[in-house]
């Protein structure tokens, strides 16, 4: 009799331990899910690196969602997007690249602008070619350094300005070099590798002591919007939409901090 009671007690103990283990396993599931990291992947124009990096850091602090970024010129980013068909956010140098991506079927939603691309002329500090307006860039002897007209947003914009000024054919003979980014144009001018260039106004902030900035006549200048877009390939559409909304609301103040103009 005692033997049967002992066996019965052991069975009860085994059932209790098994049930307790099951409860513990069920409690761990939501914890594991809650700590699963969510991150976004963004294609970002090289000229937007500083403000977008700060925006991404602020977004992670607020939401816990990390934004991994790939910086390159806008044309290279579009080529990468065409190849990979992956990612969550697209933030190129101007709307023309978003329009191309939209036509190719990559874009889910678009918002902005978060700031504006404002082209200006730069020269070495002593302005040896005496450049005071866009038309001067077509003068004989001018050595012009510009961002690549096919791969960069600001390069495309520069040629629209040349066309507005009626010098698009004449200016070609003065192009000494085409650079991958406007930052490299500034470097070339400060190193004496040309006597005029076209960049975005924010590119001049860190080199004010080494260059002269010549504003372009608003009648022919092409100030363009900097948009933010989400991609249809995103596996985290809610977080991507949240970043787009955050960039639209917080972006202007952050971009202004880095020298971009946020009003036309």
Q: What spatial order of strands do you see in the largest sheet? A: 2-1-3-10-4
Outline: elongated
**Roughly how many Å apart are the termini?**
95 Å
SSE order, one letter for each helix or strand:
HEHEHEHEEEHEHEEEH
Q: Note poorly predicted spans.
A: 19-35
Q: Give a short account of the largest sheet.
A: 5 strands, mixed
| Count of distinct strands | 10
Mean pLDDT: 89
The total of helices stands at 7
The radius of gyration is 28 Å
- Helix fraction, binned, reads 40-55%
What fraction strand?
15-25%
Q: Helix/strand-derived class?
A: alpha/beta
Notes on the protein architecture:
This protein is 42% helix and 23% strand. It is of the alpha/beta class and 264 residues long. The protein has a 5-stranded mixed β-sheet. The protein has a 5-stranded mixed β-sheet with strand order 7-6-8-5-9, sandwiched between helices.
Secondary-structure blueprint:
Elements (H helix, E strand, L loop, with lengths): L1 H33 L4 E7 L3 H15 L2 E7 L1 H11 L4 E3 L3 H9 L3 E11 L1 E6 L19 E4 L5 H13 L9 E5 L2 H9 L5 E5 L10 E5 L8 E8 L5 H21 L7
Parallel strand pairs: 1-2, 1-3, 6-7, 6-8
Antiparallel strand pairs: 3-10, 4-10, 5-8, 5-9
What's this model, at a glance?
With 264 residues, the chain is an alpha/beta fold. The chain is built from seven helices and ten strands.
Which labels suit this protein?
alpha/beta; 23% strand; single chain; 264 residues; five-stranded mixed sheet; 10 strands
